[in-house]
Amino acid sequence: MTESLDLFSAPAPVDKAQPAIKIKALRDQLNQWAHQYYVLDEPTVPDAEYDRVFRELQALEAAHPDLVTPDSPTQRVIGAVMDGLAPVRHTVPMLSIHTETDTEATGAQAFDARVRRELGLTDADPAIEYVAEPKFDGLAMSLRYENGRLVQAATRGDGEVGEDVTHNIRTIRQIPLTLPEGVPPLLEVRGEVYMRRADFDALNERQREQGGKTFVNPRNAAAGAVRQLDSNITAQRPLSFFAYGLGAITPSAEGGPVFRTHYEMLQTLKSWGFPVAAQVQIAVGATELVAFHQQVGASRDALPYDIDGVVYKVNSLQLQRDLGFKTREPRWAVAHKYPAQEIATKIEGIDVQVGRTGKITPVARLAPVFVGGVTVTNATLHNLFEIRKKGVRVGDTVIVRRAGDVIPEVVGVMPGKRTGYVPNFRMPAACPVCGSAVVREKGEANHRCTGGLFCAAQRKEAILHFAARRAMDIEGLGDKLVDQLVDANVIRTLPDLYRLGLTSLIALERMAEKSAQNVLAALEKSKQTTLPRFLFALGIRHVGEATAKDLARHFGVLDAIMDATEEQLLAVNDVGPIVAKAIRTFFEQPHNREVVEQLRACGVTWPEGPVAERAPQILAGKTVVLTGTLPTLSRDAAKDMLEAAGAKVAGSVSKKTSYVVAGEEAGSKLVKAQELGVPVLDEAGMLELLSGQGV
Ligand code: IVH
Question: What's the pLDDT tens digit per position in 585-643?
Fold first, then answer.
């Protein structure tokens, strides 16, 4: 809060000057809060409080239209639509900067050596002080303030003449519209408008949802937003700003600040409310420049915004003047680039890859390019939708991005480079790994292989699922063992598990005879199972435990399920068209049927019976909640028994609960049951109920 004004005290008697004073106080307060929020990243009031004061200002301004000024916080997003962008001649040209792409050491040393030579220094002279800054990957902007008010914002253009984008720049909350008192009467702040990566991703996501154009990278998105004719559009594209220099400046009436160094100037800009990057620091001599290049390069992918290098600037403004310019580049600054994270190359073909879960990913085979520090020959295209949306075809020149350890991706097609007709990419109908049908479900972006446990690409995942506790419950068959077994090619399909012998297990690294015997015993034990467990273990898409139980209850025998039509499947409780189709597709694959047959041949069995023989559904329509530890039955066993009798087993107690079965250490669920008057049973009571003589 500003020192001298108390916004929350009772209103003083109204006189003529009152609204103007009040308006100023409200604006100062809002500007201060906005600066804390947008620039310092340190919100000091709840959003609701900001909104309340904002509305108060809006109301006051509405009552006094003559007091509305363009620098009021209320005027940031009320944008006029322009016919075109007007040219602006820069009073001080916006220069470009010499670029070094050499290695860390040679790039920085070459610059330092050049500066020393130009200044006529010898080895005996002390090291030069520099300011090292990130090189932001956005677009250069010149902000002109007259008497502390933002009057014009212009793009760089050709360096001499840029474009007037004031209406759009006003929407950027990080850019102050007014400056504190005492700033020079004329001040041009130069810096970079950019878009944070998270904001960019969110924007593209939104554009995608609304069927709008997506952007290839944050820089393009920022440039597009800045050059909009309608600032209402810009206001919806979250832009940010970093100050890194000055254009024209006149000293203030009182003599104004005369800066001695670049660093001091940046600190002053910061104190006036401009965002200055936290990484900016003083570096002495070439060695520290090299260190800075390394340090920022290492944290590059962790920064919330894109940079394409670092900039070194001689710190002393006097030395800057001594060094001067060469054509349109200052001799006192250099940009030292990092390897590009984006580069153009040609797509030579499109293959598909099958993931652990059966997801089919189209992958572009590229003419090899050096990007993000490595040679890249493949890049993901994500899925068929992305290919269509981006309009990617074989032979196209595309932009490939590789940031850090992230998988390289094709971000977009360079327009106008296609020569002649190229057919659209089509998803293969059969999985390239196992030959099973490839399908895409309604409402899903990804295609999938239906091979499941038969597909080599999905083998490890399928085996782990098969062995899981709630499936076949094969103790000791975990991640590491499955990796070893599959990698050594000992296990190719699920039935191979039951063909494992002591010799092949002991042959594995770090497998003692005792553990091998335990695994074999666990496998042997797992052969006696139940139909729901077996069905669940097969890993049919969308068939979880509950559906497996429903299917088993409905059909009674596996063969009936394997041969059921979609229509018959739809008759099962909770089975809809998506699940029915998934089950159908799974059992239509001859190799999946083969796997089931072989498992049976290996001795996997479960009690089966015609539907009529299933347990009487004495608890049909009842909902039961289990809580606490029962004396003899495990939670799973109790659940199975209740469900077999037709009950629904729920996780929480409500008025609709029919019974709560409580064991030892039952907690809040028991209390709730008592409150609601729901009958509570112990294990014996439950068994009595199941036998048909209960409550
Ligand atoms: S100083 C006279 N500092 O790089 C030197 N430029 O050609 C003027 N850039 O498009 C530029 N980060 O927008 C400077 N920390 C930084 C920068 C930076 C990015 C951009 C600038 C311009 C290009 C310079």
Answer: 999 989 899 999 999 999 999 988 765 455 677 888 899 999 998 888 888 888 888 88
| 95 ligand 1 Cβ < 6 A | yes
The atom number, within ligand 1, closest to the CA of 245 reads 1
Catalytic residue among 22, 135, 549, 622: 135
134-166: per-residue pLDDT in tens? 999 999 999 999 999 999 999 998 888 999 999
Average pLDDT of the residues of the chain: 88
Instruction: For residues 599 and 522, give the distance between their C-alpha atoms in angstroms, rounded to a whole number.
Output: 16
Q: Check whether 6 has a pLDDT greater than 80.
A: no
Distance 204 CA to ligand 1 centre (A): 26
390 among the known binding-site residues? no
- Start-end ranges of CATH 3.40.50.10190 in the chain? 623-691
Check whether 456 has a pLDDT greater than 60: yes
What separation in Å is there between the alpha carbon of 276 and the centre of ligand 1? 13
The answer to whether 566 is a known ligand-binding residue is no
CATH class for the region spanning 623-691: alpha beta
- Range(s) of the chain covered by CATH 1.10.287.610: 26-67
Range 328-348 average pLDDT: 89
DSSP labels for 500-523? --HHHHHTSTT--HHHHHHHHHHH
Contact predicate 295/310, CB 8 Å: no
Q: State both tokens at 127.
A: 């090291």
Say which CATH class 455-527 falls into.
Answer: mainly alpha
Whether residue 97 has its Cβ less than 6 Å from ligand 1: yes
Joined together, the tokens standing for residue 140 give: 């250069």
Report which of residues 30 and 3 the model is more confident about: 30
Full-model pTM: 0.58
Spatial contact of 553 and 610, defined as CB atoms under 8 Å apart? no
Q: Determine whether the shortest distance from the Cβ of 162 to ligand 1 is under 6 A.
A: no
- How far is the C-alpha of 7 from the C-alpha of 26, rounded, in Å? 8
198-227 average pLDDT score: 87
Per-residue model confidence as pLDDT tens digits over 631-679? 888 888 888 888 878 888 888 999 999 999 999 988 889 999 999 999 9
Rounded distance from Cα 97 to ligand 1 centre (Å) = 7
The ranges of the chain annotated as CATH 1.10.150.20 are 455-527, 531-602
Q: Answer whether CATH 1.10.10.10 is correct for domain 26-67.
A: no
- The full DSSP string for 594-613 is HHHHHHHHTT-B-----GGG
164 labelled binding-site residue = no
Question: Ligand 1 pocket, 277 CB below 6 A?
Answer: no
Domain 129-337 has CATH 3.40.50.10490: no
Residue 37: left (phi > 0), alpha (psi -120 to 50), or beta? alpha
CATH number for the domain running over 342-415+429-439: 2.40.50.140
Segments in 135-261 forming alpha helices (H): 166-169, 197-209, 218-226, 231-235
Report the nearest-CA residue for atom 9 of ligand 1.
135
Q: Distance, CA 37 to ligand 1 centroid (Å)?
A: 26
Among 271-285, 427-441, 641-655, where is mean pLDDT lowest? 641-655
Range(s) for CATH 3.30.470.30 in the chain?
129-337
CATH code, 531-602: 1.10.150.20
Q: Determine whether 135 is an active site residue.
A: yes
